[in-house]
Amino acid sequence: xxxxxxxxxxxxxxxxxxxxxxxxxxxxxxxxxxxxxxxxxxxxxxxxxxxxxxxxxxxxxxxxxxxxxxxxxxxxxxxxxxxxxxxxxxxxxxxxxxxxxxxxxxxxxxxxxxxxxxxxxxxxxxxxxxxxxxxxxxxxxxxxxxxxxxxxxxxxxxxxxx
Length: 162
Hints:
Layout: E1 7-9, E2 15-17, E3 25-31, H1 40-51, E4 56-62, H2 74-85, H3 104-109, E5 128-131, E6 137-141, H4 150-159
Parallel strand pairs: 3-4
Antiparallel strand pairs: 1-2, 3-5, 5-6
């Protein structure tokens, strides 16, 4: 089973899968509304606006596992993201990214190593995974890496399918 086949629900509760984004360069990010890193939504949205029409999309996965920093309902999360940061990229249901209830998408992603060669559990909110247009994970960037960091922008540009 590929990462594209794993079921997930949209933030609105509709069934979905990453298969809907097959052929695009994807940036998967576990997000939270009440975190010191929450302003990263601005950079994520700028990436979406810059590259969205070139075969790229950000995919947001709300998670409440780090300091209970995503306590809201799906509706509250959607309203916050739209009203505060103008988020237009797809958002999915709140998921666990670590532990026994880790979502299967994250079970696949955490095997990817970061720049230091380390894999395993998600460290905090806003950990980023760049997945190439062919479905392989290109890189893992830890939470403190800015969404518009030169190394991430270069990796996105190098993989754009169009």
